[in-house]
Amino acid sequence: MNKRDIKLEVNKFQDDFSGNFIYNTVKKSFEDKVEIDLEELCAKFLLEEFDDTETPVSFYGQYPALNYLVENVREFKFKQGHPGASKDPRKENSRVLGQVMCRYFVEKTFGSAYMANVGTLLGRNLPAEYAHISIERTQEGDTPDFLFMDNHGTPCLAEAKGSRKPIAFDNSKFDIWREQFDRVEVKISGRPTKVKGYITELAIANEDNKMSNSVLYIEDPELPGDIYREGNLGQLIKLAHYERLLSKTFLNFIGYSLLSEDKLSKNKKYEVPVFKIEGISMLQDEEIVSLYDDKYYYRRYSNYKFVGITLNRLKSLLGIAKGVEEDFLEEYKYENFNSVFFRFSDGFVVCNSNLLEFVGFRLI
Predict the structure, then answer these.
(1) Cβ–Cβ < 8 Å for 180, 144
(2) pLDDT grade, residue 295 (50/70/90)?
(3) Is residue 229 in a domain?
(4) Which among 177, 202, 295, 304 is placed 20 to 30 Å from 161, CA to CA?
């Protein structure tokens, strides 16, 4: 059973909220539960926690944080005291699940695949076209995890938490998480801009803690400031998103140059391994670059998940990294074929390796 339900509780959302996934647009009310596609959650995990030195997983049950889900039930609940065989793995798996579930919530609710890590942008000197934007720390302490744009083009901060004990909105720990939003400002031309905020906490049920099901707590605080009207912040977030993901691969030189004044040589070409998809007719002409620096990857791990990026999107990013293309990046149509092939709207691909055919190396 690859679909699970998670209980939903929300707090401080405004009456004019508009979004999907957590909100029933027909009834004009928030859902009391949300459905999770475990294969898609696994695909998002593979992108977020990508490590090209590790053997990948073949299905959601091999993803460490999902390995001990109770089988053949609709609830998102773990066996015994899991996820994790001991204290440290349980803590880490809970953290990772909270992070991935936050991204799942953002993309499903607002249609936003692009999320920048706040920590990499704090106090950073940005290229000339983004020099009027600054992400600034106002006081010491932890800050929210992510920055993204919602479906109305409004800047949003998000803080992700995962816990094996439910922490309700009136718990003092929630107050500590709320304080993180006071420690960062998004400024346009030196003036603070109004930012929405989302705290997501995944309270993870298991057989030991007696919770009947996991709960996703989501709160919607709002920060003061001017209404956002300037367009470049969304593009900055997109480039920071690609910088973060590509920096973990052999294509890191492209990622590092996206938001740098030091651009790559305009004349230099780079060789990349290119694959095509077999068995999905509408994508038969799509060319995909592996994020693994290994042309034999699809043979060695023929039953495992492949992680890549469309060749066309990589070419556009390389053009930005060379300073020869504008920063505008159109979104792809999200595709999910029977939970064995995912193409996300940012152009990243996660699929079963047996769908691939290696067609050779390309110079780009």
Answers:
(1) yes
(2) low
(3) no
(4) 304
Query: What pLDDT score does 58 carry?
Result: 61
Burial class (CB in 10 A: 0-12, 13-18, 19+), 47: buried
Instruction: Please tell me whether residues 178 and 270 are part of one structural domain.
Output: no
Cβ atoms 99, 158 nearer than 8 A: no
- Give me the amino acid identity at 240: A
Same domain, 210 and 324: no
- Claim to verify: residue 258 and residue 165 sit in the same structural domain: no
Share of the chain above pLDDT 70, in %: 93
Cα(75)–Cα(62) distance, rounded to whole angstroms? Answer: 19
Show the domain range for 69: 3-223
Looking at residue 52, its pLDDT comes to 64
CA–CA distance, 361 with 271 (Å, rounded to integer) = 6
The answer to whether residues 243 and 36 touch, using CB atoms and an 8 Å cutoff, is: no
DSSP secondary structure code for residue 75 in this structure: B
In DSSP notation, 134-184 reads EEEE-SSS---SEEEE-TTS-EEEEEEEEESS---TTSHHHHHHHHGGGGE
Q: Residues 196, 332: one domain?
A: no
Does the reported pTM lie above 0.85? Answer: yes
Structural domain contains residue 165: yes
Counted domains in the chain: 2
Residues 203 and 261 in one domain: no
